[in-house]
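Collaborator request, handled under Task 6.
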Amino acid sequence: MPIHNEEEYLPYCLESLKDAPLHELIVLIDSCNDRSEEIIRKFNSSFPVKVAYAKGCEWKNRISELTEQAFSLCEGEIIFPLFADVIYDKRIFDTKPFEHYDMISFRGIDRDLYTPLWRTTYETFLSSMFEKIDFKEVVWRGCIFGTKREVWKKLGFKDITSNFGEHLQFRDYRDRLVNAGYKYLYVRNRENIHLRTTTFTKETQIQEGCLRANKHYPFWRVALHSLIHLKPHVFTGYMRGKN
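Structure tokens returned to the collaborator:
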């Protein structure tokens, strides 16, 4: 878990992990000047918490490089990259499914956007409009995942140039893992709640759209993404990037 000034969300995240079936928690302090480290050191859990400090980052995408640094400190055979602004569903740490899969990702819900009633209603509406698409998987797929250590050692994370590093880092790693012949599973019935609200601002959506234009995403894919995720400014940024 890389941490940079997360004192607002960290207590909620740690509380959700308190009784989780973890072998260890590696916390990578990244130039914090708030109370994050103090909160971590006072955290009482049934598993050891190891605190380390981030080394100088040379990659363009800091999130990917910090994840690499943190993974190199882990001792377990199954590794989960965690975020300090998420309330975790403890069921994701069940390692039995990894007997059959090399990477498993889980549903993530944005607290400020999707209430359970709204989520169910919107899924039903989309499914009725597009019967051939399983929107319960498409709409709410998140970048919360676990992977086998042996697979990470072979694939590693890449320097993905993006302000949306955790999302594209997940997609890049997943795609390379599948292309290499490893087994991947998405689990939808887990409720991991993302607490931060800044991801979906107009400016951030426009940046995401420009990024998709630079990566030459097809028009239909971006339009569908904007519709499904209710982020119209992603499409606006995509059109700007194309022009």
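The cover message to the collaborator said: "The chain has a mean pLDDT of 84. The chain has two domains: 2-200, 201-243. Please let us know whether this matches your experimental observations."
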